[in-house]
Amino acid sequence: MIVIPREKPVFEDLNIYYLDIEKLVEHYQGEIGSGGVFFKSPTAEGAIFFDKDQVLNAVFHEKQIQLQGPEATDRLVKAGGQDNFRVDIYRISPEEVYFWASIPGAEKIYKNLSTEFTDLEGLIKKMSSEKLTGYIDVSISGGKEAGLIFIINGKIIGGSFSWDDHPPGDSHKNQELLIDKSRKTGAMFNVCRISLANEKMGNEAAPTASPASENALSMVEELLRIFENTVSTNKKLKGDFSKLLKKKFVENAEKYAFLDPFAGEFDYSGRKVSFAGTSGDQELVCGVMESVTDLARELGLLPGLIARLPVWSETYARELKKFDITL
Fold first, then answer.
1. Exposed, middle or buried: residue 59 (CB in 10 Å: 0-12, 13-18, 19+)?
2. For 160-182, what is the mean pLDDT?
3. Residue 83 CB neighbour total at 10 angstroms
4. 157, 167, 185, 283 — which has fewest CB within 10 A?
5. Averaged over 125-141, what is the pLDDT?
6. Burial zone of 217 (CB within 10 Å; 0-12 exposed, 13-18 middle, 19+ buried)
7. Spatial CA neighbour of 141 closest among 156, 162, 160
8. What is the pLDDT of residues 29-78, one digit of tens each?
9. HSE on the CB side for 72, CA within 13 Å?
10. What is the Cα–Cα distance from 192 to 296, expressed in whole angstroms?
11. Distance from the first to the final alpha carbon of the chain
12. Across all residues in the chain, what is the average pLDDT?
């Protein structure tokens, strides 16, 4: 699906057979300054975004073919009557046109978040507080229904919903319905970030290396392995260890931000730890240790876990003392 803010067209339902698309775009660059030309036929669709100086981007979809950039522009300009396109022209403010033009190249920063660990309303609030420019892609009941929520610098500017044929725009009621549907039937979320040209300038690069030491990472990895063994050998317990652990991480994420699944910084899977955050050794060890002991206590396994930790405790005695951790 190609999205464009089709609130009120300047012109609509024009037949491409009678149009010179290059001259059409040039005309509306002078007439309205910035906007989009939307192409729709029974088998294909496309869009060209422009400001007063240039074509910013274009996108074209036809069955298995997906083009963007100059290739898409060329395909739409040369379409003629072969695709039987109907053409609409929309005015888009200079402040927003770069957002819509950049959607095809958006970067997926959080993938496959599930309602099992993530609430959509909380995710929206978090992305707003972090001043996201991008969108949240919501798939409900395995793709039976879907929705998109568009955000610029933390402000929601509209949405697109599978059950609503109206164009993207002010959609508070549909957003509430999307949240409700996701809670009732389950959903998956992807968060995509758009890097606009003016956002790239003057920003310092985010740190890519974790300051946590290899020793601290080994320490928490071994702890989690021991805890996983403790849980898996207890036949009375039901539930997947990974899900139990992630739920506990979510509960502790307010205190230890690196545990937040939105952040994608810390992961334990396949009995291996991966860490891409900026937390130091003490925060890393204390956050994981607190989560493990809390969960072990709730499951009635704390005595059994402690009984399995003498060798681990001796190996990391200096770190336990340094971080003031007692078992």
1. buried
2. 80
3. 20
4. 185
5. 90
6. buried
7. 162
8. 999 999 999 999 999 999 999 999 999 999 999 988 999 999 999 999 99
9. 25
10. 36
11. 54
12. 86
Residue-wise pLDDT for 181-235, tens only, equals 999 999 999 999 998 654 432 334 444 444 789 999 999 999 999 999 999 888 7
Least confident span in 122-126, 137-141, 161-165:
161-165
Residue 279: pLDDT over 60: yes
> Can you tell me the distance from the alpha carbon of 227 to that of 237, in angstroms, rounded to the nearest whole number?
13
Per residue, the 3-state secondary structure of the chain, as one string, reads CCCCCCCCEEEEEEEHHHCCHHHHHHHHHHHCCCEEEEEECCCEEEEEEECCCCEEEEEEEECCEEEECHHHHHHHHCCCCCCCCEEEEEECCHHHHHHHHHHHHCEEEEEEEECCCCCHHHHHHHHHHCCCCEEEEEEEHHHCEEEEEEEECCEEEEEEECCCCCCCECCHHHHHHHHHHHHHHCEEEEEEECCCHHHHCCCCCCCCCCCCCHHHHHHHHHHHHHHHHHHHCCCCCCCCHHHHHHHHHHHHCCCCHHHCCCCCCEEEECCEEEECCCCCHHHHHHHHHHHHHHHHHHCCCHHHHHHCCHHHHHHCHHHHHHCCCCC
- Going by their DSSP bridges, the two strands 65-68 and 145-152 should be labelled as unpaired
Q: From its phi and psi, is residue 72 left (phi > 0), alpha (psi between -120 and 50) or beta?
A: alpha
User: Which residue is listed with tokens 């994608």?
Assistant: 264
Tally of CB atoms within 10 A around 281: 18
Predicted pLDDT of residue 199: 42
Which of 293, 294, 302 lies closest to 320, judged by CA? Answer: 293
CB atoms within 10 A of CB 142: 10
The tokens describing 84, both together, are: 């039987």
Looking at residue 291, its amino acid is S
Amino acid at 32: I
